[in-house]
Amino acid sequence: MGWIVRLVKTGAAGDEGSVDVLEIDRAEDLGDIAGLGLTLAEGKALLAGLQQEMVAAQARDHAVRRPSCGKCGGVCHVKDYRERKVASAIVLCHVWRA
To answer: Which residues contact 42 (CB under 8 A, 6 or more apart)?
Structure first.
């Protein structure tokens, strides 16, 4: 018996995709109850595959949304591109001695 674990991305129309994360081939002999479910190795491989595919997809989506540099027109490599104004206040304390 074979199983394919597939990760399916859903979203806006036309923005759907899928990737096969893990394929599991097992004998159909279920005489031993210890053979039910995933093995530890299969569970680790599944989690690693899911993590890899999800992070890659999220990174691609994030890269598309990066703003263009106002000076050179290239991709802006900072997380926050808003202009900041820094105001500081200097507080002077006087200690009076009698």
So the answer is: 22, 24
pLDDT tens digits, 29-55: 777 777 788 889 999 999 999 999 999
The CA distance from 14 to 7, in Å, is 16
Domain span at 6: 2-64
Would residue 80 count as lying in a domain?
Answer: no
Q: Do the domain assignments include residue 41?
A: yes
Length of the chain in residues, anyone? 98
- For 7, 43, 57, 74, the CA distances from 62, given in Å and listed in that order, are 19, 28, 9, 16
Closest CA to 52 of 82, 20, 75, 84: 20
Write out pLDDT tens, residues 53-69.
999 888 888 777 777 77
Domain count, the chain: 1
Domain contains 25: yes
Residue 90 inside a domain? The answer is no
